[in-house]
Amino acid sequence: MSQEPNLIGPRIRKLREHRELSVETLAQRTGCSVDMIQALENGELVPSLTPLLRLARGMGVRLGTLLDDQALDGPAIVRKNDANPAVHFSGNDPSRKRSTLAFHPRAPRKAARNMEPFLIDVRPAEGEIVLNEHEGEEFIYVLSGRIEIRYGKESYQLDAGDSIYYESVVPHHVHALDGAAQILAVVYAPA
Question: Is residue 166 a contact partner of residue 135, using CB atoms and an 8 Å limit?
Answer without folding.
Answer: no
